[in-house]
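User: I'm writing a tutorial on reading structure tokens. Could you give me a worked example: one chain, its sequence, then its tokens, then a sentence or two explaining what the tokens reveal?
Assistant: Sure. Here is the example chain.
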Amino acid sequence: MKSMLMGGAILLGLAMCLTSCEGTLDDIFGEWSRPTGNNGNTKTTVAVKSVTLDQTTLTKAVGDDAVTLTATVDPSDASDKTVTWKSSDASIAAVDANGKVTFEAAGTATITATATNGTEDTADDKTATCEVTISAKKVNVESVKLDQPTLTATVGDAAVTLTATVTPDDATDKTVKWTSSNESVATVADGVVTFVAAGTATITATAPNGTDDTADDKTAECAVTVNAAAAKVTTAPTATTGTIVAGSTTALVTAGAADGGTMMYQVTTTNTKPTSTTGFSATVPTAEGHTAGTYYVWFYAKADATHVDSEISASAVAVTVIVFATSLSLDNTMKVLVKDGATLTIKPKVTPSAATVTWTSSKEAVATVNNGVVTPVGLGITTITAKSGDLTATCEVFVGTEVNVSTRNPIQDYDILAGTKNTSAITIPAGCHVAFNGVNTNQGIVCSGDATIYLIDGKKNTVTAPDDKAGIKIGGTGTTLTINAETAGTGELKATGGGGSAGIGTNVSYSATGGNIVINGGTVTATGGNSGAGIGTGCDNNGNTCGDIKINGGTVTATGGTLGAGIGTGAGSSSTTCGDITIGTGVTKVTATKGNYSPNSIGIGDGSPAPTCGKITIGGVVKAQSEFTGATYTYTPSN
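And here are its predicted structure tokens:
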């Protein structure tokens, strides 16, 4: 009874509340439902508030293992916790009713988990999503191979690029990482190996397969050996320019230069490369201790502490060491050659015999010289010079054209004359140089000006003149007749004047003037006509002059006519004059004989008032006129 009364009271209170309050039971009790059914029992429904997934993003590759997403419904006592699954693109990522996601193709898709709350009304749906990114199917690297498993190089060599080949060719990640086990020896970057110092190192190429798990790594190695660099000859020595005299301190070669070492030298007498470095020295070799000859200087760079020796030079520097002469002369001092004719070999007389002699020609257009062999190539006169140290010796070479004096008209410069001409005098044009190779005439020779005659060894030349003509008439005042001879001096010239004329000099004539006379060699015999000098002037009371007379060489015999001196003036007066007379020490012998009525053999001939003569010098000594009054004066230099 009591319980019934309490129940009634509760019901009464609820009724009163309902009549005085706005709202419904649902408002008051929330989501509690009204009683249903006929039997009076009640059923309570709890709605889903949210759904969450254990993974909101997935990044996978095609073919990766499926992933099951887990959806969590809140609250946990929701009346209907059913979740449905859906993919935005099942061709990329598919999902089954249990949230199992499979990775079908590369791309992106969204997986959506939906709690429907057990109704058809989607407004009540609660959802959660997972963004899926799928890459192409991963192909793992199976192996890595290097194109060069070993490398041997030298410090300083050019870098070498290693090539790594990854298999299979379609591996997903073909990235290769490079490392060196000893970067103090060799470094590597992108496969490029640089050789730093001598030693060994291992270059490793690693394909990590796109993961940090080293267990997946595939590797290949290259064993690198780096040798020390060779010292290098940067400047090779060269032969010393100029003359290298045996025994002197002159260096045989210039000093070389080396990088990474020291220059070393060795001298050999044969052009044979040394087989080892034994005997090499760091001192630049000199001519000390060496005699004349050719030497060969070999060299290499001796290494410092961080290099190795260079190779010995492939070829040597050839050097000629010479000895200079203490005396030097030539077997020829004057020679006449024919243009384009035979050569002449000049032999030096030298002490010591091993002395080096060099040769030059003053005019190579006339004749060239090679080791003493003279080749005539053009008309003219050249001086061949032999030189050894400070000593020199010379040979004058005349190169001419052979002609016959009887047909040559006019005579030309550098003619080599031979033959006989008795039809008229032989005229030598001013400035001409001619060689006598056996000339004969009875009409005399006339020099128009300066003239030079060369007497060829072994040849006889005879010149006589008609009355009142000199055998060889010299040119006028200021000109010079020069008589030269080949080396032996065996070429002969006999000149005889006619009437009162000189053998060599001026004609008998009023006011005749003549130039200088120089005899340097040969065998010369000059005989004056009746009153003329052998060498000098013809006779004339009204003035007949010649210039200086110099006899420097040869064997000269001069005989005056009846009133003339052997060398000097013919008969005349005070206006008959001769210049200075000089006989040098280079002659073989000079003999001067006066005419029967001449007062002197050398100097003044007969006359009143007496002719005049310049200074007379014999062998370097000035003589007085009174010393030549004897019939004959002979001068032979002392040996």
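What the tokens reveal: The CA atoms of residues 563 and 597 lie 5 Å apart. The helical segments are 2-20, 25-29.
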